[in-house]
Amino acid sequence: AGLARAVCDTRLGRLQAPDPFWARFIGFLGDHPGFPPQQVGPVVDYIASQKFGLGAQAPPQPNFGFRGRTPESLIRQTHEWHLSLARTKVAYREFPAAPLEAAEFDTRIGEATIRWRFRRLRNTAELVVEGEDMSNCVASRAGVCLYAGHSIWRVEYAPPGQPNRRLTLETVANGGIVELRGRANRFATEEERQAVQLFSLHLREACRQDRRNGPSVPLS
Questions:
Q1: Which of 7, 165, 213, 216 has the most Cβ atoms closer than 10 angstroms to its Cβ?
Q2: Nearest partner of 66 among 37, 34, 36, 32, judged by Cα
Q3: Run of H or E residues at 157
């Protein structure tokens, strides 16, 4: 159950049609039920970067396959890839304007009111900082932000009696959710998922309005 949920929490959970390549990866996980669920998301990012490339970059391993690989080797290669991303200087680029740049709202958990804040990252520099702060590989998503209409959001909230928490959210051009991760790729809690679903509904409506009214003007 843990592995199945971990797969659904990645971009694979949003595939519109069966994909033979990713089906082989899911088969690989089935052959290795001890694969750490918290490593599924990072490994999917690594495999996608190797098989399909990042943004306009050519894929380093277009014939990437799973024969002869082990969970340990994939996790080690993913870690090495993360280190290489951290050492690579990312050229500064502004992301295209979006229908929504920020949002805030309250939810209630028991008697407590929680304020949620969502802010869209607007350039590659902010993306790199987010990856460093959250110990994830979100910097690898620059290509889809520049060319495929995706957005990365910084999500912040304060549970009752606890310090602020943060998550990193990726959405597609129509406001749908791609991935939601906490620090060091931890899984989101049920309360976090529910709040992000509410935000996604708001974002989807903003995207529909934008399509009807024409392109939005970036916030200053």
A1: 7
A2: 32
A3: strand 151-157
What amino acid is encoded at 102 in this protein? A
Residue 75 pLDDT greater than 90, yes or no: yes
Cα 51 versus chain centre, distance: 18
Q: What is the mean pLDDT of the chain?
A: 89
Cα of first residue to Cα of last residue in the chain, in angstroms, is 45
* Distance from C-alpha of 39 to C-alpha of 11, rounded to nearest angstrom: 14
Nearest CA-CA partner of 64 in 76, 55, 77: 77
CB distance 190 to 205 below 8 Å:
no
Does residue 155 contact residue 161 with C-beta atoms inside 8 Å? no
- Record the tokens describing residue 88, joined without a space: 């690579």
pTM for the whole thing?
Answer: 0.77
Q: Which two three-digit tokens encode residue 120?
A: 């869209």
Question: What count of other Cβ atoms lies within 10 Å of the Cβ of residue 158?
Answer: 14
Q: DSSP code of 123? A: B
What is 76-118 written as a DSSP string? HHHHHHHHHHHHSPPPP-BPPP-S-SEEEEEEEETTEEEEEEE
Q: Mutual orientation of helices 40-52 and 20-31 as an angle, nearest 10°?
A: 140
Q: What backbone phi and psi angles, to 5 degrees, belong to 208? A: -65, -45
- DSSP conformational letter for 32: -
